[in-house]
Structure formats: structure tokens, C-alpha cells
Amino acid sequence: MVSLTILSAPKPPSLARGFPLTIEVAPEATVADVKASITAKFPKFSTSRQKVSVKDDKKALEDETKLADVLGEQLRDGELQVKDLGPQIGWRTVFLVEYAGPLLIHPLFYHLPQVFYGKEVQHSALQKYVYAFVMLHFIKRELETIFVHRFSHGTMPLLNIFKNSAHYHIFSGFFLALDVYRSKFSATSPYIVGTYRDNEKFLWVSAGMWAFAEISNLHTHLTLRNLRPANTRKRAIPYGYGFSLVSCPNYFFEAVAWGVICVMTGSVAAFVFSGLAVGQMALWAIKKHKNYKKDFGKEYPRGRKAMFPFVL
């Protein structure tokens, strides 16, 4: 066993006032072992709240990182420090809460229009299609969260759940529902009657394109799941459907699905939410694309873009 000193970040953890702390670790110990030792000393300072890094380095060390790789074989070439990240919440819980918002909000506007608009609304076929698309999309997302997704990071700061949820609850929940279920899109509205939005073939083609995008998105998620064994952060180069052109086809297909709803409705709320969502997904895709190229170097296919084939 080797003695290792753990310092606190500039602001001492509120749940652990005994730093610097000396612990005994095996030569082959990992960062996860260090976190477990800290929690053993301070039970309220859970491992999920701990950010462990090399002294004077802000970059967090992954749990599976071996101490010998960052401190030298004798574990004496440096010191570690720990920072309290504050209360945490699991990513799976965050996703479930995010997607639950639209699932609760849309039925209220759709089935109780007199409450929100002060009158009944005779729903058009367009409204019925959009309602079905939104509900099926977020039901799919909830099921994927439970049964498909494997998260590289187990938790996030608790307060972030309010920021993350606001995007879905407000923009794809309240604003979208408020706009698309009002009388402007009803069965008797001039905006609908006699236009392509009331054309059965147009609605069926739209439904087909939307279903294609959603199924393709699911296929991408299943491919990514199969690349990562359970309870690991293993990364591998994804191949197959969609990945021949972009690094993040799941984002591309989701953009297509919401684009279909935008074209179908012409709803300002739909365009605003889709614009925000696509912009955020593009940022994520660019970051993931760069990480793939950094991690795999020349092995990573050179012709791929980040999110949009041949463009970005």
C-alpha cells in the first residue's frame, strides 16, 4: 500500500472538513478507489459529488484512470485534489423529467381547449397528426431512456435539471401546444380548409417521413448502445446505417423529424423550438465529432461530417 495525500479545492467541501487527507491505496488503484476512500472517511460526501483532479489542474480525472498513469509508478510525483460538485442527480432521472413535460402538457391543451382558449376547438386532421407525432416522440424518448441509453456520466448538478427541463417543458411543451391546438389550425380555419395542410396525401407523406426519421433515430441509439458494454465508458468508432456520412446521425434524424412538423404546420412555436434544438444538437455534434477524431486519430473515417451530410 502507498500513502497518498488528497488536498481540497480552494473552497473546502461543505460535507468534509478534514482536508488535506491521507489515504492508503494500492499501487494499481484508480480514481474510483480514491473517491471510495474519501466517502469512507466522510459518508455524506458521496462519490458522485467529487471531482478529483491533479493538483493545480482543473480537468477532472475519469473514474477508471489509474493513479500510476497520472502520478507516476510510485504515486509520488504529484498530489490530487478534490472539489465538491454539490448535490447531484442521475442523468436517467433528468431525461425522464425532461420528456415528461410535453407528455403532460400537450394532452391538456388538446383535450381541454376551452380552458386555455375560452372555446371549443374542432380539431383538424393536421392537429391530430401533430398531437400523435409529439406524444409518440416523447414516449419513445422515455422508453429509450429506460431501456436503451447507457450514460458515460452518471450524474449532473441537481440545479441543472431546471435549466434542462425548461427547454422541453416551455418550448416543445407549453409554447408548441398553445400554438398548434388553437383555432387557427382547426378543422374550420381558412388556414387549413382547401390548403395542402388539409390534403390527405400530404399528411400521409409527412407521416411517412416523420416515421422514417424517428425509426432511424432509434436505430442509431441502438447502434451506440451496442458499442458500450454496461457499466463502462468504453468508446469505439460507430459504423453502419447513418454513420457512413456523419458522426451523430441520431441528431440529424431528430432534426428531420421536427423539420417535418415545422413544414406541416408553419407554426412559429415549432420553428422556434426546432431552431433551438437543432442549434444545440449541432454544438453537441461538433464536440463529439472532434472527440472522435482526437481519440481515434487516423482510424476515424475522414469523410464524415459532424451532423449534416456533406455540410456540417
UniProtKB/TrEMBL annotation:
An annotated GO cellular component = endoplasmic reticulum
Q: Lineage of this protein's species? A: Eukaryota, Fungi, Dikarya, Basidiomycota, Agaricomycotina
Any Pfam family hit: Steroid_dh
Keywords noted in UniProt: Endoplasmic reticulum, Lipid biosynthesis, Lipid metabolism, Membrane, Oxidoreductase, Transmembrane, Transmembrane helix
Under the GO molecular function aspect, what terms does this record hold?
Answer: oxidoreductase activity, acting on the CH-CH group of donors
What is this protein identified as? Steroid 5-alpha reductase C-terminal domain-containing protein
Q: Which organism is it from?
A: Laccaria amethystina LaAM-08-1
Recorded hits in PROSITE patterns, A to Z, give:
S5A_REDUCTASE
Q: Which InterPro entries match?
A: 3-oxo-5_a-steroid_4-DH_C (IPR001104), SRD5A/TECR (IPR039357), TECR-like_N (IPR049127)
3-oxo-5-alpha-steroid 4-dehydrogenase C-terminal domain residues are 155-312
Instruction: Extract one GO BP annotation from the record.
Output: very long-chain fatty acid biosynthetic process
